[in-house]
Design a protein that fits this description.
Glucose Oxidase, domain 1, 2 domains, 20 helices, 4-stranded parallel sheet, 8-stranded mixed sheet, Rossmann fold, alpha/beta, 34% helix
C-alpha cells in the first residue's frame, strides 16, 4: 500500500518504469506535458452533466470554473461525466437508478488517479448518489451543488416549478381554471437552468450537504445563473487541491455528528421526506447506526424556521438573499454539533461567525419560529411495523387524528383507471391507499405517494385527504400523506392485506398507524397472499429487486452497505499490472 503521506496519483504517474510511462503517455496524448505530473495533485471533476436534466445542464460551464480554481491552486484538473438522473424524465423513477449511479461514482473514484475529487450534482438523486459513492471510495472529495433556478413570475406573482405545479394541476382538475391558464403556467415556470427553487428534494439535499460540512459555507442557495455560483465553483476547485495535500477524506467529515446536524437542518427548513431515505442510505455506507426514530427525536425538538414552499411562502432566492445556510445554522446553533469537522478543515462553528439573518420573513429566530417543532413524524403500528413518514409541516391539522374506511388502489395503473371515475365509492372521510409502488413493487419507489384527490371530491372543494402508500412523494408536494410504509406491499408487508372498507386510523400525536382488523382475519389474508411476478428477469432491474433494502434502511443495495477497509487505497500491484514486471 502507498505511503499515507504520498499523493495517490503518484502510484500511476511517478514511476520511472514502463507502467509509469504508459500512464503518463495516456494523458500526454491530450497535450499535457511531463510537468503536469511532477508532484501536482490530480483533481477529478466528477460531473452529472446531461442535456436531459435541466437542473444539471449548466455543469459544463461550472466545471470550467472549478478547473480554473484547481489550476490557480497548482493542481491538474481532469473531468469525467457519470450517469445523470432526471426526476422529470427517467421512468419509472430515478430512485431505481440512484444506487447504480452511486456504484459508478464509487468505482470511478477508486479506479482513477485522483488525489481529490469535486462532485458536481444538482437534480434530486444525483447529489445523494455522489455522496454515497464518495463515502464508499473515501478519496478526498468536496461537493458543489448546481444551485436553484430563478424564481418565475406569472401575472405579478412568484411561482415555483414544483409546489405551484401541484396547485395548478388541482385547480385544472377541479375546473377552477381553464386550459389556457395551465398553458400560461407551463410557459412561465422554467425561466432558467437550475433545480427547483422550492425546498424540494434538490434544494433540501444541497442545504443538508452544506450543513454536513461537505461543501463550502454559503454555497447551497446561490442561484444557478448567478455569477457568484461560478465564484463558488472556483473556490471549490482550489479547496480540492488543498484537500489532496491534506489528505482529508470523507470519512473524517461524514460522521454521526454531521448526520445529526443534517437531520436538524432538515426539520428546520421543512425539507423533503426523500432526504430521510438518502441520509439512511449514507449512514449505511458509513457504517453508522441511524435508526428511523432518531429523525423523529431530532424533529421533535426542532421548529421550522425557514419560510420556503411547500411548508412556507417563499422561494430559494429569498433564502439566499436572507443569508443562506450559514444564517440558518447560526439560528440553530444551540441544537447543533458545532465542533463537527467540515471540508474547509475547520469546525462547523467557524462557518457561522459572520452569518446573519437579514430577513426575518424568510429566516425566523429559533425562539419565534414559523412552525412549531415536530414537522416530521415517524409512524408505526400494525400497518407499518418498520415505520412510515408523515411531513406534518405540510399536512392538514384536522387530519392528524383521523379514522376512515380504506379505498384501495392495487397499483398506479389501477389508480389512473379509477381516480377520475365519478362512480368511485369514496367520501371525505375515506383513507386512500396506494400499494405495490415501493422499492420492489413499482419498481424503484417513485414519487407517487401524493395520491390525487378523486375528481368527484376535488370538484366540490376538497383539498386534502389522508393518503397512505409505500411510495415516496416529491419534496415540493404537500398534504396529509403517509409515505414509505415499511415493509412494502410487494414483499408481503401489511399494506398488501388491506381491503377497501377496512377502517384505518392515523394518530400522529401517538405516532400510530393502525389497520382496525382482527389479527386472525389478517392471518387468513396473509395465508392467501401471493407475490406478483417480477418486473425484470435480467440486468440491473433484476439485480435491484434481488438486493434492494426497504425504506427504513435507505433503499440501498444490501451488498453496498458498510465501510470498505480498502477505501481510499489501492494495492500497487493492481495498478501496475503485468507491465510492472518488465
Amino acid at each position: 500500500m502507498r505511503d499515507p503521506g504520498a499523493q495517490r496519483s503518484g502510484e500511476w504517474f511517478a514511476g520511472d518504469d514502463l507502467a509509469g510511462m504508459l500512464h503518463r503517455w495516456t494523458l500526454r496524448a491530450q497535450g499535457l506535458t511531463r510537468a503536469s505530473f511532477d508532484g501536482r495533485p490530480v483533481i477529478g471533476i466528477c460531473s452529472s452533466w446531461s442535456e436531459l436534466v435541466h437542473c444539471n445542464v449548466h455543469f459544463r460551464a461550472l466545471a470550467n470554473h472549478v478547473r480554473r480554481g484547481v489550476q490557480q491552486a497548482g493542481g491538474v484538473a481532469l473531468e469525467l461525466d457519470t450517469v445523470s438522473l432526471s426526476e422529470g424524465l427517467m421512468k419509472p423513477t430515478t430512485m431505481l437508478y440512484r444506487n447504480l449511479m452511486a456504484m459508478e461514482v464509487e468505482e470511478c473514484l477508486r479506479a482513477h488517479p485522483f488525489d481529490a475529487v469535486v462532485l458536481i450534482g444538482g437534480c434530486d438523486k444525483t447529489v445523494p448518489a455522489q455522496l454515497m459513492g464518495a463515502a464508499s471510495a473515501d478519496v478526498p472529495a468536496i461537493a458543489l451543488t448546481g444551485g436553484p433556478s430563478l424564481s418565475a413570475r406569472l401575472h405579478g406573482r412568484e411561482i415555483g416549478s414544483g409546489t405551484d405545479f401541484w396547485r395548478y394541476a388541482d385547480d385544472y382538475r377541479a375546473g377552477r381554471i381553464e386550459r389556457r391558464e395551465l398553458d400560461e403556467f407551463e410557459a412561465a415556470v422554467g425561466p432558467s437552468v437550475g433545480h427547483c427553487p422550492e425546498m424540494g428534494t434538490a434544494s433540501t439535499m444541497a442545504v443538508l450537504v452544506e450543513a454536513m460540512g461537505f461543501s463550502l459555507p454559503g454555497s447551497a442557495m446561490v442561484p444557478a445563473v448567478d455569477a457568484r455560483r461560478a465564484q463558488v465553483a472556483e473556490r471549490t476547485g482550489a479547496r480540492a487541491v488543498e484537500l489532496a495535500r491534506e489528505g482529508l477524506r470523507p470519512s473524517a467529515i461524514l460522521t454521526e455528528q454531521a448526520l445529526e446536524n443534517a437531520i436538524t437542518m432538515l426539520a428546520a427548513v421543512g425539507g423533503s421526506t426523500n432526504a430521510v431515505i438518502h441520509l439512511l442510505a449514507l449512514a449505511g455506507r458509513l457504517g453508522i447506526a441511524l435508526p428511523l426514530e432518531r429523525f423523529d427525536q431530532l424533529a421533535a425538538r426542532t421548529p421550522t424556521i425557514v419560510n420556503l414552499r411547500p411548508s412556507g411562502e417563499h422561494l430559494s432566492e429569498q433564502l439566499f438573499q436572507a443569508g443562506g445556510v450559514p444564517a440558518v445554522l447560526r439560528e440553530l446553533a444551540p441544537l447543533l454539533h458545532l465542533d463537527a469537522p467540515t471540508v474547509t478543515g475547520r469546525p462547523l462553528r467557524d462557518a457561522l461567525a459572520a452569518a446573519d439573518a437579514s430577513d426575518r420573513t424568510t429566516i425566523a429566530a429559533l425562539e419565534q419560529p414559523f412552525r412549531p417543532a415536530g414537522g416530521l413524524a415517524v409512524l408505526r403500528g400494525n400497518l407499518a411495523p418498520d415505520g412510515a413518514l408523515l411531513k406534518v409541516s405540510v399536512a392538514s391539522e384536522a387530519l392528524l387524528r383521523h379514522s376512515g374506511a380504506a379505498v384501495v388502489f392495487e397499483d398506479m395503473e389501477d389508480l389512473a383507471a379509477r381516480i377520475e371515475d365519478p362512480a368511485l365509492e369514496v367520501d371525505t372521510s375515506s383513507v386512500l391507499i396506494l400499494r405495490n409502488v415501493g422499492p420492489v413493487g413499482a419498481p424503484g419507489m417513485p414519487e407517487w405517494g401524493q395520491i390525487p384527490i378523486p375528481r368527484r371530491l376535488i370538484e366540490v372543494g376538497v383539498r386534502d385527504m389522508v393518503r397512505i402508500s409505500d411510495a415516496r412523494m416529491s419534496g415540493t408536494a404537500y398534504g396529509t400523506v403517509v409515505l414509505h410504509v415499511t415493509p412494502e406491499a410487494a414483499v408481503g408487508g401489511p399494506l398488501a392485506l388491506v381491503r377497501s372498507g377496512d377502517r384505518v386510523t392515523l394518530d400522529v400525536p401517538r405516532r400510530a398507524l393502525e389497520l382496525e382488523v382482527a389479527d386472525d382475519e389478517l392471518a387468513r389474508r396473509r395465508e392467501a397472499w401471493r407475490p406478483r411476478p417480477p418486473h425484470y428477469e435480467r440486468g440491473y432491474g433484476a439485480l435491484h429487486a434481488a438486493h434492494v433494502l426497504q425504506a427504513d434502511q435507505g433503499c440501498d443495495l444490501d451488498f453496498l452497505r458498510g465501510r470498505d477497509p480498502r477505501a481510499g487505497e489501492l494495492p500497487l500491484g493492481m495498478l501496475r499490472g503485468w507491465i510492472g514486471g518488465w
